[in-house]
Here is the input.
Amino acid sequence: MKSLDDKIREVATEFSLNETDIRNSATLVGLINSYNGAYVNDGSFNGGEYGNGVITMGGQDYLNIETLAHELGHATGSYQASYPDSYATARDYADARERGEGEAIAIELKVMQKIDSSYIQNYGFPVWKDNAKQSSEEFYTDRVIGILSTPISTLYE
Ligand SMILES: [Zn+2]
Here is the structure.
């Protein structure tokens, strides 16, 4: 079994991330510790994704800690959607996908607020309800705060 230090070193090396930055967020360290999947740096891919036990990241805009935190949220979160045929209706599936995305965004913000206090301003579109710029973001905010605020604050530092 890999030690936490080995896990942090592995992900930092794979994605060329700063180990000190990673260690600045207890939330991120906790996510890395609870994740047992693989990390793949794919130079032909411009984005981040999680699937089948693998977090894949690549491209100049996505090889960063916020993408890692977001994908770890998908990989380890409690509100991630299952397969489409697990739901009675398309609406139910869409709601489940939205909850999963809200959770990943909430975790990403929690990590980045710790690492970079100006991250929310730089992010461009706050997801918090009072600062919401678009109705779709307000919808996310309702999901994030209504469904996730208690579990997030309980489960992640
Ligand atoms: Zn996502």
User: Anything to note?
Assistant: Residues 4-155 form one domain. The helical segments are 4-15, 19-23, 26-34, 65-76, 90-115, 119-123, 135-155. The first strand starts at residue 38 and ends at 41. Residues 70, 74, 101, 104 surround zinc ion (CB under 6 Å).
